[in-house]
Design goal:
Keywords: Coiled coil. The protein has helices at about 75, 85-185; strands at about 40, 45-50, 70, 190-195, 205, 210-215, 225-230, 235-240, 245-250, 255-260. The chain has about 260 residues and is of the alpha+beta class. The strands form three sheets. A four-stranded antiparallel sheet has the order 4-5-6-7. The chain has a three-stranded antiparallel sheet with strand order 2-1-3. About 10% of the residues are buried.
Length: about 260
């Protein structure tokens, strides 16, 4: 009785070594006599040989010279399909074919999975790229808005400073014109003090060591005495916001006189 297949030892090999080593068909040409077909089987050496290897009484081949158990292949292979060894070999071949088919299908499945993974990763890369571009666009917009607000704020401040500087320049030019008018048309402006101007552009000024306040027309052609300070000399003067009063500081800087103006 043949032993159980499950109890037989198994030799495991790497599939990478399987390939051309698997015989497609049995070899039919004799290695010793290339022109002869192998049609006999030597049971002593467990090998197939040809007719030329076998004489009538004894094997003339160096490996079969004393072999008596040489049978024709037809006789030697009789009932081989019913043997346990043949059954095991056929089952092993079928199992190997099934395994190789499964392996081939697995590799094909791996290729398909690889393509799907590549497509998925490519899609994710595009999505990340789109998100990054959107974020960059939003950041750019925010920066432009911030820059515009800062520019507008600084522009307003600079314009205010320019306007203030222009006002100071206008005031200085007016004072310069007043001094020039006093110099060119006044009676004696070498000691003029407390210069101011009314709404009509007339210039008011005093002189050192004099209690009189003089008024000169805006064109500098007419000049006349307007007031006489009773106590001291005028040191400084200015009009009120509504130009209805003239305030005069005496030379000792201890008192201020207020005079009502009539236009």
């Amino acid at each position: 009785m043949a032993g159980s297949k499950h109890l037989k030892p198994h030799h495991v090999i790497d599939l990478s070594s399987v390939g051309s080593n698997i015989p497609i068909s049995a070899k039919k040409i004799c290695n010793v006599h290339p022109d002869m077909l192998m049609g006999y089987y030597c049971t002593d050496h467990v090998i197939v040989c040809c007719r030329a290897c076998i004489p009538k009484e004894a094997c003339i081949h160096k490996e079969h010279r004393k072999c008596d158990n040489i049978l024709p292949l037809e006789h030697a292979s009789k009932d081989v399909k019913k043997s346990a060894l043949f059954t095991d070999v056929m089952q092993d071949i079928k199992h190997l074919i099934t395994t190789l088919n499964d392996l081939h299908n697995n590799r094909e499945s791996n290729l398909q999975s690889l393509l799907k993974t590549k497509s998925l990763i490519t899609k994710q890369i595009r999505e990340v790229k789109s998100e990054l571009l959107t974020h960059i666009d939003n950041l750019e917009h925010d920066l432009y808005v911030t820059l515009s607000c800062l520019h507008q704020k600084l522009e307003i401040q600079i314009n205010k400073q320019k306007e203030h500087i222009s006002q100071v320049l206008r005031s200085l030019k007016e004072n310069e014109n007043e001094v020039d008018s006093l110099k060119n048309h006044g009676k004696d402006v070498s000691c003029a003090v407390g210069v101011t101007r009314d709404q009509q552009g007339n210039i008011y000024y005093g002189r050192r060591n004099s209690s009189n306040i003089q008024r000169m027309s805006s064109d500098g052609k007419n000049c006349e005495d307007m007031l006489n300070i009773d106590n001291g000399y005028p040191h400084g003067m200015c009009f009120g916001n509504d130009f209805t009063k003239l305030f005069v500081i005496n030379d000792c800087l201890k008192s201020v006189f207020a005079y009502t103006c009539r236009h």
